[in-house]
Amino acid sequence: MKAVVALGANLGVREHTLSAALREIAMLPDTTLQAASGLYESAAVKPEGIDLAAPSYLNQVAVIETELTPIQLLSRLRVMETAHGRERHERWGDRTLDLDVITYGNLQQNDPELTLPHPRAHERGFVLVPWFEIDPLAELPSGSIAELVTPMIGEIARVSDSPLAGITTEGQVS
After folding, report:
1. Beta strands at 39-42 and 31-36: parallel, antiparallel or unpaired
2. CA distance 25 to 171
3. pLDDT score at 153
4. What is the C-alpha to C-alpha distance for residues 97 and 77, in angstroms, rounded to an integer?
5. Contact, 17 vs 81, CB < 8 A?
6. Residue 65 CB neighbour total at 10 angstroms
7. CA pair distance 126, 80, nearest whole angstrom
C-alpha cells in the first residue's frame, strides 16, 4: 500500500536526524522507499499558533510502498522517534524527531490511535509543500495537493535537495 510519511525535527542536529530516520524508514520490513522530498524549514506550530521563539523545524515528506498495516507502520515510526530521543511532555512540543502517517492508500479512518488521512495535513504547508514536490498529483479528501498547496508556497523555505539519491531501497547510503 502506498503511504505518505511526514518527518520533522526542531531539536538536535536536525538534518542528521532526518537523514537517519529516512534510512530507517527505507529499512522497514516489507517496505520500499519510493520518494523523498528535499528539506524545508518552517516556524514551529504550537496549539496557540506559530511560535517564532521556538527553534524552527526541518521538514520533509517520504512516499513509501508498504505491506505493514497502518497501526504497524505507526508503531514502527514511534519506536524510531523514541530511539532518536523524542519525549512527549506537551502537545506539539519541541522534538528531536516527529514522524506522522499522513495517508495510507485511500484509507479513511477516525481511530483514537490513528486518524487517516492526518486530520491537519490539508492545512500544513510544512507537509503539503514537500509532498507536492514529490507527488504533485496527490489527493486528500479536502482537495488536490496542487490546489491546497498554492496559498502555502511562501510559508516555508526549501533548504536542500532530496537526500534520496544517496539512499538505496535497503536503507544503505550509496
Report:
1. unpaired
2. 7
3. 78
4. 10
5. no
6. 13
7. 20
pTM over 0.85: yes
* Location of C-alpha cell 510559508: 155
CA–CA gap between residue 115 and residue 44 (Å, rounded): 22
The CA–CA distances, whole Å, from 162 to 15, 58, 105, 158 equal 12, 13, 23, 10
CB 155 within 8 A of CB 42: yes
Q: Which residues are catalytic?
A: 86, 95, 98, 100
Q: Say which residue the cell 477516525 belongs to.
A: 110
Residue at grid coordinates 519506536: 79
Average pLDDT, the chain: 89
**pLDDT digits 0-9 by tens, 62-83:** 999 999 999 999 999 999 999 9
Q: Strand 39-42 relative to strand 157-160: parallel, antiparallel, unpaired? A: antiparallel
Cis, bond preceding 141 (omega within 30 deg of 0): no
CB atoms within 10 A of CB 129: 24
Spatial distance between the Cα atoms of 62 and 171, rounded to a whole number of angstroms: 13
Phi-psi region of 49 (alpha: psi -120 to 50; beta: other; left: phi over 0): left
CB 34 within 8 Å of CB 138: no
42's grid cell: 518552517
